UniProtKB/TrEMBL annotation:
Residues 138-266 form the GFO/IDH/MocA-like oxidoreductase domain. It holds the Pfam family GFO_IDH_MocA. Residues 7-127 form the Gfo/Idh/MocA-like oxidoreductase N-terminal domain. Keywords: Oxidoreductase. One of its GO terms (molecular function) is oxidoreductase activity. This is Dehydrogenase. InterPro entries: DUF6807, Gfo/Idh/MocA-like_OxRdtase_N, Gfo/Idh/MocA_oxidrdct_glycsds, GFO_IDH_MocA-like_dom, NAD(P)-bd_dom_sf. It comes from the Bacteria.
Length: 658
């Protein structure tokens, strides 16, 4: 068996299959392989098989494998067919070279993995860059401490793809075909190597190796998937990987990986296997490394049990990232006014360019930053939550506001499913009220609420004591949820509190949706930290501080009630399980908010007459002293119409049961 060529079937001879045909020609000439079969849904032109003998042609992959006795199948079919055909090939008795990405979803990846375990056969994934000696070279460079402590790895890739690229197949540029996942975007297909190579250099390749993933997807072309995108990966060690790519550059810039170390940096142009090491002191050094062909390695593995270079398990972390991309919000459309559209003589678009995007990807790698953190005009610093296909809330996480407003991320505008606005930003009566968010009047002597600070004996007083909440990073962003890390920073720039925040939106029965917010505040000072409201300092009824919802001041007919009482005087400082607020907008449209606490229950702070706003109060009778962490969860039903007490109670009960 070891003396004769390995018998190979190629599944998918079009598109990227041409590259594999050329590689098979090369290896056939050396006597390593013999192409015994071609599986495709369309006939393969004779010229495409020149030099490869007379392989059998069939559209039946398992039958073809069995008839030809193929030991290896090279699978180069559309992404969404990988799982079905990979399992069929393995169960027919063939080892597998599976083109990247191995699957369009985590679920289908696990189907393939189960078949690999069941059959005991090899599945090599076609990440050719992982066959490069540059990767173990970089790993050793890092492990030996030549770069010092490594804080992050940034990858940049900027190519141009014409309009025809996205029309090359029915699945091209698609996120899904009906209910079937495709996940053919810039990050997961043409630049899949960028992610896989960075994970390999970081030695974080197995499923579960990535602790947090944050994705931003954009599109300039009229497609479903992304053509310009970035991702930030955080490993359990704290090391950060960013990948920023585009298919809308003016031309081709070879993708490169930049390793940030305290004692130097190293870069890898993975398409050329070129490494440049730039120490903090001394001269740069450049090396070029060999690469092992993955089909050759697979044959060697089958013949001699040599180590497989890219087994399926080595792509587990990549699939984690792909799954995050698949589940992320739909790519944001980049306005045509921010594009350069190339056209043919008839005026039809032939390609799209984003001015300055190649430089932007390079800056991302340098700063380990996402597009929205680099002031890209088409990447605003906001996250849109969607329910039932409608935008219901905008989360603004980088805000340009006066320091006296205690700048902080917030939700605004928030709307009912019917489009009625139920939040207000910086109203004239209290310019430091910022939609829906989390704020406290006093944490360790710092004003994180905005406006004047209440001073016993003097009343509300302007002081230079305003802090701000600083967004650090997102953990996960999807169409209806996100997680976030923040720091609460004092006027001296020192972080007082760390915060872990999760925000989610989902539909509920009737014309309503539910906002679910959980936040955990962690004391960073090393000593007990007191959180105070003005009420704890002697100002009667002013227990505000914590989760707070500022409703529109223009609303008329404002009411507030619980399951037992009604009116501001009775609801304020009460301990009811839920509070409902209703109003009517200037166009005569009614709305209702039903807010509830889960777990620890704080007294309610409520205003209706002066302005409409409410939320649980973290500290009322006495300061809340934080030594470690405190967690609160608040849900709010956002409904069209004016609900009464019974209807509000029923909605509260239905959402609490879930």
């Amino acid at each position: 068996m070891t003396g004769r060529p390995a018998r190979v079937v190629l599944a998918g001879a079009g598109g990227h299959g041409h590259w594999h045909l050329d590689n098979l020609r090369r290896l056939s000439a050396t006597g390593l392989v013999e192409l015994v079969g071609v599986c495709d849904v369309a006939p393969v032109p004779a010229e495409a098989l020149a030099g490869l003998g007379t392989p059998e042609y069939s559209a039946d992959l398992p039958g073809l494998i069995r008839r030809t006795g193929a030991e290896i199948t090279v699978l180069v079919t559309p992404i969404h067919t990988h799982a079905e055909l990979a399992v069929a090939a393995l169960r027919a008795g063939s080892h597998l070279l599976l083109e990247k990405p191995p699957a369009p979803s985590l679920a289908e990846y696990e189907v393939i993995a189960a078949a690999v375990r069941e059959t005991g056969l090899a599945c090599q994934v076609g990440f050719q860059t992982l066959g490069s000696d540059a990767i173990p070279f970089l790993r050793k460079l890092i492990a030996d401490g030549h770069l010092g402590r490594v804080s992050g790895i940034g990858v940049a890739g900027a190519w141009n793809r014409p309009a025809a690229y996205f029309g090359r197949a029915p699945w091209a540029g698609r996120r899904r075909l009906g209910e079937v996942a495709v996940t053919d975007g810039a990050l997961t297909n043409p630049f899949a190597h960028a992610i896989a190579t960075a994970l390999a250099v970081a030695e974080a390749e197995q499923l579960g190796a990535v602790a947090e993933i944050d994705v931003e997807l954009y599109r300039a072309n009229p497609i479903e998937a992304d053509d310009t995108s970035c991702v930030r990966l955080t490993l359990p060690s704290g090391l950060v990987i960013t990948v920023a790519v585009t298919l809308c550059a003016p031309g081709r810039v070879e993708p490169s990986l930049l390793v940030h170390g305290e004692a130097g940096r190293a870069s890898l142009v993975y398409t050329r296997d070129e490494v440049e090491v730039v120490p903090a002191t001394g001269a740069p050094a450049r090396t070029t490394h060999a690469r092992t062909d993955l089909l050759e390695n697979l044959v060697d593995h089958v013949r001699t049990d040599a180590q497989l270079l890219v087994p399926l398990a080595r792509t587990g972390a990549f699939i984690q990232v792909l799954e995050a991309v698949r589940r992320a919000a739909e790519p944001a459309e980049i306005p045509e006014r921010l594009q350069e559209i190339r056209r043919d003589d008839t005026g039809e678009p032939t390609g799209r360019v984003l001015p300055g995007v190649a430089e932007l990807t390079a800056r991302s790698a340098e700063r380990l930053a996402l597009y929205s953190e680099l002031d890209a005009p088409w990447a605003p610093a906001e996250q849109v939550l969607r329910v039932a296909g409608r935008d219901v809330a905008h989360y603004r996480w980088r805000v340009d506001l006066p320091v006296t407003a205690s700048p902080r991320p917030h939700l605004h505008p928030v709307r009912t499913l019917g489009g009625v606005a139920v939040s207000e930003l910086a109203p004239a009566d209290h310019v430091h009220h910022l939609g829906v968010g989390i704020a406290v009047a006093d944490a360790g002597g710092v004003n994180f609420w905005g406006g004047r600070t209440y001073v016993p004996g003097a009343g509300p007083t302007w002081r230079h004591d305003h802090g701000r909440q600083r967004h650090l990073r997102f953990r996960r962003r999807e169409a209806d949820r996100f997680g976030e890390h923040l720091e609460w920073v004092g006027p001296d720039g020192v972080a007082i509190l760390g915060e872990r925040r999760t925000v989610a939106a989902r539909g509920v029965e009737g014309a309503a949706w539910l906002l679910d917010v959980t936040f955990t505040l962690t004391n960073l000072t090393g000593a007990p930290l007191a959180v105070r409201s003005s009420a704890t300092k002697g100002r009667a009824g002013a227990g505000y501080g914590g989760f707070f919802w500022r409703a529109p001041g223009s609303a008329t007919g404002r009411t507030v009630f619980t399951e037992r009482v009604e009116g501001e005087d009775l609801v304020n400082h009460s301990h009811a399980p839920w509070v409902a607020m209703t109003g009517t907008d200037p166009d005569g449209r009614d709305w209702t908010l039903v807010m509830a606490q889960h777990g620890h229950v704080d007294p309610w702070f409520v205003r209706v007459r002066e302005y409409p706003g409410f939320g649980p109060a973290l500290a009322w009778e006495r300061p809340l002293v934080v030594t470690g962490s405190v967690t609160r969860r608040v849900t709010t039903i956002v409904a069209d119409g004016r609900l009464d007490r019974d209807a509000s109670a029923q909605l509260f009960a239905s959402t609490t049961e879930r």
